[in-house]
Amino acid sequence: QVQLVESGGGLVQPGGSLRLSCAASGSIFRINTMGWYRQAPGKQRELVATNPRFTISRDDTKNTMYLQMNSLKPEDTAVYYCNADVVVHGSMRIFSFWGQGTQVTVSS
Nearest 5°: phi and psi at 76? Predict the structure, then answer.
């Protein structure tokens, strides 16, 4: 029905930057909310909030969300997931979808 595809992850040195993208496609009537989550090894998945190092933005014309990460630290190492609450075409219900995740590794 709806697919979320993350991209932009990889290996970066401490202090570096990465820009993640999440593109939504499929039977989308309306995207209500989109968000970024991350899960580090052995830890629970957590919401990624905008902060002085991380900026979240959306391009609704492209159904795409971005996560600009600057001044990355080793503790930012995690799999980053995209989540969207979507009203699907032909339905009046809101469904929650997840992407497959993209690995971000911060290491020297």
Answer: -85, -5
State how far the Cα of 75 lies from the Cα of 97, in Å rounded to an integer: 26
Q: Is 76 exposed, middle or buried (0-12, 13-18, 19+ CB in 10 A)?
A: buried
pLDDT digits (tens, 9 = 90+) for 35-82: 999 999 999 999 999 999 999 999 999 999 999 999 999 999 999 999
Beta bridge partners of 33: 85
Antiparallel, parallel or unpaired: β 18-26 and 64-69: antiparallel
DSSP 76: G
- Is residue 91 pLDDT above 90, yes or no? no
Give the mean model confidence (pLDDT) for residues 90-94.
87
Please tell me the distance from the alpha carbon of residue 43 to that of residue 14, in angstroms, as a whole number.
Answer: 21
Query: What phi, psi does 19 have (nearest 5°)?
Result: -125, 115
